[in-house]
Amino acid sequence: MTRTEIERLNEADRLIQEIVRDMGLDFMSQEFDVVPVEKMLEIMAYRLPVNFSHWSFGRDYESERTRHEHGFGAPYEVVFNSDPARAYLMDTNPFAVQVLVMAHVYAHNDFMKESRHFQRTRRDMISSASEAAARFREYERDYGIDAVERVIDAGMAIQWNVDPDEDLHQESEAAARDRIFGWAKPHAPRGAYEDLLPRPPEFPTDQKRELRKHTPPEPTVDLLGYLIEHSPRPLAEWEKDVLSVIKGQALYFMPYRRTKIMNEGWATYWHEKIMQRLFKERFLTTEEHGLYNLYNARVKAHNPRAVNPYLLGSALFESIEDRWNKGRFGRDYLEVENAEARERWDSGLMKGRQKLFEVRRTHMDWFFVDEFLDRGVVEDLNLYVYLEKERDNAFESVVEVTAWEKVKQYLVQSLMNWGIPRILVVDGNYKGSSQLYLKHVFEGLPLDEEYCRKTLGYIHELWSRPVYLETYEPYLHQLRAKLYVADEQSIHVHEE
């Protein structure tokens, strides 16, 4: 970039900060790096500016590069929840697009600072990942590349099977048993209504002895963490370190997964308003205004093959602002049966912005879509269920489901548990012989057979003893139980 272009970007940065503050947004200290396309694609594939080596990152890099070269993806920016916040801009972006992206980044920054889901993530992840990469290279020298990669393979297979809120309820197994089985020290009387409070269960001495052996004390979704702490192999310290790094990065990225639609929608909603101010103040030329319109339309383009989070998220925030400005919520509004009266309803409440900031702070995608997606948004965005059908020797997207309630149901279902099958660790001492019993909480979708088998193989490698996985699948309008068993020989499947 030329000196003049850099000076103009700095001026854009100053103006955007003024506008953002004027609009009521807050943000952490922000740094920008302008990088070549190759570096941008590398950051996207490796998830962080520097990270450990793994074949899957190389695969993702080739995928991103191919998409970019064939015009199916333009990586405008990448932003990280760090201190200071770091954002990377692609050096081939036209100036108007760089300004768009900077406005977009400041809204991301506000979201990461204020959303409760980002408050507990570590903001030193970039340096932590760099240090971990150096340790992993030492492990490769000491124990061999194949051995290290095998552990990374296993960890990556279950990287999202963690407890995203573990810091809210950190508890030792001994304390958990005290809480669950009532073995804690007797507490002082809590008042005149003490007899109305639930009493801890009573267990015979021999049953207490058995319950003390049960691990975990209650089912947990933190499969990866449980394997690290309780594997009967046992795992070497370097293996625990590798798996702990993978778990730490998964926890770091979990808020992004939980709020993808909200985060991108929030950034899109605000970058449009920021850019409007910049055009009004004539910071950008008429030609640059045209470029902005082109690229912004691409950002919000409808895609029948996948949900566009920029489009859906910004539309939902616009709908919320409009509804709360006009008072279109609550009992009085919902009890109006006349369609014309509902359409004309405007109480002049003007609490739209207040509601936006409240929702940004508290919600995640699952609840965001469930609470605020309505018929109007579905129809405005043509948010229907499409199927690929062959017609005249070609495939085309055909609308299959248009009922907005059904569309909403499908979308909410896809967002449950952030799109990750919920696997519970039920028993780490199954049959009294350190066998591992897992249970899939069936929420409407069966497990993928091939992925399930391969993942169980990796879990067995880490655990070293037989591993059981209980699951269900639809069969003749009912659910049929399945039990996967992984041992040293193979993976067996038993069906009900």
Describe the structure.
By secondary structure, the chain is an alpha+beta fold. Among the domains are: 3-115 and 259-299, no CATH class; 309-416, no CATH class; 420-495, no CATH class. The protein is built from 20 helices and 10 strands. The chain has helices spanning 3-22, 37-46, 55-69, 95-114, 125-143, 145-157, 173-181, 205-213, 223-230, 237-258, 260-280, 286-299, 309-326, 330-334, 339-344, 352-362, 365-372, 375-380, 404-415, 449-463; strands at residues 30-35, 77-80, 85-90, 385-391, 394-401, 423-430, 435-440, 467-475, 478-486, 491-495. The strands form 3 sheets. Strands 6-7-8-9-10 form a 5-stranded mixed β-sheet. A hairpin with a 4-residue loop joins strand 9 (478-486) and strand 10. Helix 1 packs parallel to helix 4 and helix 11 crosses helix 13. The protein is globular. It starts with a helix and ends with a strand. The mean pLDDT is 91.
